[in-house]
Specification:
CATH class: Alpha Beta
Oligomer: single chain
Strand content: 15-25%
Radius of gyration: 17 Å
Number of strands: 8
CATH architecture: 3-Layer(aba) Sandwich
Distance between the termini: 6 Å
CATH topology: Rossmann fold
Helix content: 40-55%
Structural class: alpha/beta
Number of domains: 1
Strand order of the largest sheet: 2-6-1-7-8
Order of helices and strands: EHEHHEEEHHEHEHHEH
Bound molecules: 2'-deoxycytidine-5'-monophosphate
Length: 216
């Protein structure tokens, strides 16, 4: 069974998806982390994100595995993929069709034979158009910026609310307006607005749509 959760940055997708995965005993996979691992690779190599030819050639050297967490060429990297610069580069790199095709193959590999909850931008529209359940989780920009601020601050980073708000707006702009697989609600997705709801309320709301007995 596949449950797809799409939505803009900071809507709470990963928090909600993790809780749902525990409730239903599914594997939770963040597709954004795959894009982030790729952006980290190029950042570490000092390769300019606009240099498409170079990026294309380098893809053969990138191996991404998932085993409870993501590994980039054998090394656990999750601690290094959440900074603002990586978020920005990730949004930029995810515009390229060859990157999206590359990520699709990685997703297919790591999702094989599993019940999956996956979050991202195009999971219900492109990656798993036949997903059993599709949700579009959203919230106001201010609310999303507040949450992102808290999350980064709690992880010990030195952050500024206004900058986060601006960077969320930029990312929305980028993710919703790119040519290939832009962020948008799938026609058959259920919209859930998390702005004035607690995590538990959102988890309960989404759970109420899911009939686990349909699991293949
Ligand atoms: O979910 P996230 O914030 O970790 O995603 C980081 C970036 O990756 C996001 O700005 C756009 C890109 N992304 C994408 O294009 N498609 C996805 N399915 C997931 C993420």
């Amino acid at each position: 069974m596949i449950i797809a959760i799409d939505g803009p940055a900071g809507a709470g997708k990963s928090t909600i998806a993790k809780k749902l995965s525990t409730r239903f005993n599914f594997t939770y996979i963040s597709s954004g982390k795959i894009y982030r691992c790729i952006a980290l690779y190029f950042h570490n190599k000092n390769i300019y994100i606009q240099d498409q030819e170079k990026i294309k050639k380098e893809l053969v050297n990138i191996k991404i595995d998932y085993k409870d967490e993501f590994y980039l060429n054998g090394l656990p990297v999750e601690k290094h993929i959440n900074s603002d610069i990586i978020s920005k580069n990730t949004s930029d790199i995810s515009k390229y069709k060859f990157i999206r095709d590359f990520v699709q193959t990685i997703i297919e590999e790591i999702s094989k034979n599993k019940n999956i909850i996956m979050d991202g931008r195009d999971i219900g529209t492109k990656v798993f158009p036949n997903a059993d359940y599709k949700f579009y989780l959203t919230a106001s920009v201010e609310e999303r910026a507040k949450r992102r601020y808290k999350e980064l601050k709690d992880s010990g980073m030195d952050v500024n609310y206004t900058e986060i708000c601006e960077s969320i707006k930029d990312r929305d702009q980028n993710d919703m307006n790119r040519e290939i697989a832009p962020l948008k609600k799938a026609d058959d997705a259920v919209v859930v607005d998390s702005s004035n709801k607690t995590i538990e309320e959102v988890v309960d709301e989404i759970s109420s749509y899911i009939n686990i007995d349909r699991r293949k």
